[in-house]
Design goal:
Blueprint lengths: L4 E7 L3 E2 L9 H16 L8 E5 L11 H8 L8 E4 L5 H15 L4 E9 L7 H8 L8 H6 L9 H11 L4 H20 L10 E2 L11 E2 L11 H5 L19 E10 L1 H7 L5 E10 L9 H12 L8 E4 L5 H10 L12 H4 L6 H16 L3 E8 L3 E9 L1
Parallel strand pairs: 3-4, 3-5, 10-11
Antiparallel strand pairs: 1-8, 1-9, 2-8, 5-8, 6-7, 9-12, 11-12
């Protein structure tokens, strides 16, 4: 069977809402990552067969095929096409899957897969809220409402996060303790240089145009002085619940990407693989609870791959809310010391459509640094879905 290899992986450091990346047009930020990836593999830019980018809020500056626009803003020739993917939070993980599938099929040899999201410039929910406010309707159709007995409202990740906590018996304190762990792990990784190889330095650009040429190299969301008391003091999102902004992922600006190639491209261009795509799958689940899909998706992926949970050396489980990775650990029996070893989205931020290849970039570099072999990545996605990717470090 043909194989797909990852030969380069990079990301910008995360930027907080209104922070150090808020002055970047998302198209230009994505183009900067694309240029860096192509430079890293040192091939003729015209050899790139396609660019596949994930993006959730495909409206305004991220509209009209953000991937193609990023190509046009990059140093790639006009002959390189681009297409944009929306699988909600798993968009760039799906971009990686589509790239690998293209390579394995033999129809392409070099594909850039990644994602971009400027949550400062294109706020979350804009694709649904803006049309609704202007009388153009809503995605919740009559048939969906009838099927799920929802005469009003919509599928809510916030309700889903609370439901997950109740279902798996998780307390506010457990969620807060996990949030603190995320910040401590991210702080340690940042201080000891674990992120240096994966982060692409880019100019600091605030929304007002300032920045003075300084480079953005440290994830802006990390709270190096985080305490349990401080996290516990943050107001709950709903009375009687256990979810707060402090134990949920941070709004974030960022761009990320990987280069996926065929075995022929490895030979033709003398490329050194970082990892091999061992397995990729996606699963739909209950859209009302929204966030539980990574659990059955992981079980299904391991079965398809002929592996056990203990065969995996490192896991990246997106920290959309602390209840998601904690429920996943409880259900899978995975070793918590192998999951999100450098922190996750609670500390580092969750740039929606860019998070898939963000997590993959971190996973690959962590496998390399720790001398481990297999890594598994999964993340919850809007309307109850989850992608799973297993890679083997080479």
């Amino acid at each position: 069977m043909a194989e797909a290899y990852i030969v380069a992986a990079t990301r910008t450091a995360g930027g907080r809402r209104g922070g150090r990346l808020s002055g970047w047009h998302p198209v230009d930020l994505a183009a900067t990552v694309i240029d860096s990836l192509v430079e890293r593999i040192d091939v003729d830019p015209a050899a790139v067969d396609d660019v596949v980018l994930g993006c959730v809020s495909q409206v305004a500056e991220q509209s009209t095929n953000v991937a193609r626009n990023a190509v046009l803003a990059s140093k790639l020739p006009e002959s390189v096409p681009g297409t944009s993917i929306d699988r909600q939070c798993g968009s760039s993980q799906q971009a990686l899957h589509f790239a690998a599938q293209a390579v394995i099929s033999g129809t392409m040899d070099i594909v850039v897969a990644g994602g971009v999201e400027s949550m400062s410039r294109v706020p979350m929910f804009t694709p649904s809220s803006l049309p609704a406010k202007n009388g153009m309707g809503h995605y919740m159709s009559p048939r969906i409402r009838a099927r799920y007995s929802m005469p009003e409202g919509e599928f809510s990740q916030f309700v889903g996060a609370e439901t997950m906590a109740r279902k798996y018996g998780l307390s506010r304190r457990q969620l807060d303790e996990y949030a603190l762990l995320s910040h401590r792990r991210a702080s340690a990784a940042s201080r000891n240089g674990s992120f240096e190889a994966e982060i692409l330095p880019v100019e600091v650009r605030f929304a007002d145009g300032s920045g003075d040429g300084e480079l953005h190299t440290i994830d802006e969301g990390i709270r190096f002085d985080a305490t349990l008391d401080g996290i516990g003091a943050v107001k709950l999102l709903q009375e009687g619940g256990c979810i707060s902004a402090a134990n949920a992922s941070q709004i974030c600006d960022g761009a990320t990407g990987v280069v996926v190639v065929s075995e022929q491209a490895l030979k033709d261009h003398g490329l050194k693989p970082l990892a091999r795509v061992h397995h990729m799958s996606v699963l739909g689940h209950d859209p009302v609870i929204v966030l539980e899909a990574p659990i059955p998706a992981t079980a299904r992926a391991l079965k398809k791959a002929g592996m056990r949970i203990d065969d995996i050396d490192l896991f990246e489980v997106n920290e959309a809310f602390a209840s998601v990775p904690l429920a996943w650990l409880q259900a899978t029996g995975a070793d918590p010391e192998r999951m999100n070893v450098n922190g996750g989205a609670i500390a580092l931020g969750h740039p929606l459509g860019a998070s898939g290849t963000k997590l993959m970039t971190t996973l690959i570099h962590a496998l390399i640094q720790r001398g481990k072999r297999y890594g598994l990545q999964t993340m919850c996605e809007g309307a109850g879905m989850a992608n799973v990717t297993i890679v083997e470090r080479l």
